[in-house]
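Morning run. Coffee first, then this:
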Amino acid sequence: MPCILTATPFRELGGELIGIIEDYKNISKRRWAQDRLNAAVAELERSNAELQQFAYVASHDLQEPARKIQAFGDRLKAKYSEVIDERGLDYLDRMQNAASRMQVLINNLLTLSRITSKAKPFVPVNLSDVVRTVVSDLELHIEKTGGDVEMLPMPTIDADPTQMRQLFQNLIGNGLKFHLPGGKPVVKVYGQVLNEACQVMVEDNGIGFDEKYLDRIFTVFQRLHGRGEYDGTGVGLAICHKIVERHGGSITAKSTPGKGATFVVMLPVKHPSRGEVADG
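And here it is:
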């Protein structure tokens, strides 16, 4: 039985040692808890190693076949388009579109895997600046959809700047993508500080969703609409969830079908891991 022995000298009033008091404390539960913790740490290290290996494979081995499909498809079109009939050209287009979707999916999975493995230290981040950068990045998409992104002043918080950009890129991009047919997409972004937390709202006027599917939308590969209706890989909101989780926050949404959706993100204003790489 594992135990801790404490020995205390027992003396007479004159100081002469007449004995020792021994106290035995059973530490079986403590040892068991420590063993469990050590096993969990070892499992986490193993999982992180596997994740890094996946990231390497995804960025090299899995990308190469998709690139070759695209490249040989381009060569076929350039050299043999005059002898390939209309149906054959249609097949080529479908093949290249599938390869393109594969590349997007691999890149999204790579982003998801790197949220913790390639994380950056937390620093003060002005969210207004982040949103302005994202809107600039999405300029062509905004023009294509005829949409508009409105922003109110946002606070500064301790965060990973790259991941904040990914977070808003996905949320704003979704608001523009899932718009009502024939309608003008409008996305509103605003935030406020509540006690020690920053509440961020990303609101759109799009197709919305039934809230009974709320848990599904933040899970990898879960889509509420077919690819024929809206492009996507079903990874974007999973990335958002993992980013927010790493920052010690939470994300949820409120929605009614046909009446848009509002994503609510809660993030700490000050983070104990400021200047360090947080694991989440």
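The longest strand covers residues 17-26. Good start to the day.
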